Amino acid sequence: MNREREAPASTITMRTSIHGRISLLKKLIHSTSPYSSRPLHYLSPFISPISIKPKLLILPSIPARFVRLNAFSTTVTDFSTSDLSSPYLSVHVRCRKNDAEALTEALLCFGANSAYMDDLSDYGDFDEVSITSIYPEGGNVSKSISDATSSIGLDYKPNYEISIGKQSDWVANVQESFKPTEIIDGLWIVPTWRESPDSKATNIFLNPGLAFGTGEHATTKLCLLLLHNIIKGGEKLLDYGTGSGILSIAALKMGAELSVGIDIDPIAITSARENASLNAIGQDKMLACLVSDKDEVKSDLESKKGTFDVVVANILLNPLIELAEDIVSYGKPGSVFGLSGILTEQVPEIKEIYVKYLDDISISEMDGWACLHGVKKQSSEALVL
To answer: Is residue 345's pLDDT more than 60?
Structure first.
């Protein structure tokens, strides 16, 4: 995949499509957006190591920029229910800089579960770079590297080193990295294994899962701050691309009457429902709906259009553009919208689309990211694309 723009510094970017793994509305890995995917850094405090279909190993907090994940294996292993003492092989492969991209892809084709490397620009004038790849215990690393090397026509065999790691090491790292986060005075996001720093505050408890939304990233914070300012009590909210359900849960704890979260990823829906339960929120207050092609699902979602007081969509540039008419259709005239997941330089492009639907548009920014806030026009004023 070609990337026209680099991710912000100190992030890791996933670079391959993982069907059924990550919510399309939250990650959109194969989006044609200039900034085509969420950094894995956003996931790192929220994921324990897990291998799922297609097989991959997510490694939290890896000091790298570019990540490839194997989309060829169909083996399913869920480490949440397996022996976390089981080891895996971490293989450091050294090759010439010009060969790194091709070799990274080739390793995935010949047995590696994942492969990642530092940004090539970090190496400066050095010609040798390092690729770190992960293999299952017992994997034939030598054959994998030999086959990968031959497949791309290298005239040398790269040197490599093997070390052994344990799944439990990564679980500990994840839990250590995910700490209570104060969004604003009196509003905390708290992982379930930690105590809240302020028991009297509004505390949103989250359990690590596979969906986006921990409160640590700027886009989530911007949306939470917006909700803090606009929720007065009794509102009905739609969370478009709900992920972990964090925005829906926050809105309810701030006084909203009802929240509905929609997503195309079953994992996100499961995560949102579990997090709602952790916060003692029942289905009468918070619904998490899986979007599908089933007629009854489509009909139910259609019936909810035009009924919400607040609509938030913390996704990415391309879906915000391509799904603009659908997103806006859920709000009633005069409803408040919060749109995030965009870089500050992408604001003009988003604003050009949504000015057709929204009045009183304003922009808030944080760490190079932005959130657009506006009020839906009266139906007679709204333009149709």
So the answer is: yes
- CA-CA distance, 124 to 126, in Å (whole number)? 6
Among left, alpha and beta (phi > 0; psi -120 to 50; other), residue 111 is left
What's residue 137's pLDDT? Answer: 86
DSSP per-residue string spanning 307-344:
-EEEEEEE--HHHHHHTHHHHHHTEEEEEEEEEEEEEG
Give the separation between CA 218 and CA 168, rounded to whole angstroms: 29
One-letter amino acid for residue 277 of the chain: S
Q: Which two tokens stand for residue 140?
A: 């034939």
The per-residue DSSP string of 206-246 comes to E---SSS--S-SHHHHHHHHHHHHH--SS-EEEEES-TTSH
Top-ranked range on mean pLDDT: pick from 51-55, 57-61, 163-167, 203-207:
203-207
User: What is the C-alpha separation between 192 and 109, in angstroms, rounded?
Assistant: 38
Given strand 187-191, what is the order of strands in its sheet? 181-184, 187-191, 202-206
pLDDT tens column, 23-40? 323 332 223 222 222 222
Dihedrals phi, psi of 30, to nearest 5 degrees: -100, 30
Distance CA 358, CA 374 (A): 5
Given a contact cutoff of 8 angstroms between Cβ atoms, the answer to whether 57 and 88 are in contact is yes
* HEC-encoded secondary structure of 256-294: CCEEEEEECCHHHHHHHHHHHHHCCCCCCCEEEEECCCC
**Separation in Å, CA 349 to CA 34, 88, 335:** 12, 44, 22
How many other CB atoms are found less than 10 A from the CB of residue 66? 21
Helices (runs of H) and strands (runs of E) counted in the chain: 11, 16
Tokens of 285: 């207050």
What pLDDT is stored for residue 20 in this prediction? 27
Asked if residues 226 and 371 have their Cβ atoms less than 8 Å apart, the reply is yes
| Tokens 């190079």, located at residue | 368
Give the separation between CA 12 and CA 69, rounded to whole angstroms.
Answer: 12
Query: Can you tell me the distance from the alpha carbon of 312 to that of 20, in angstroms, rounded to the nearest whole number?
Result: 23
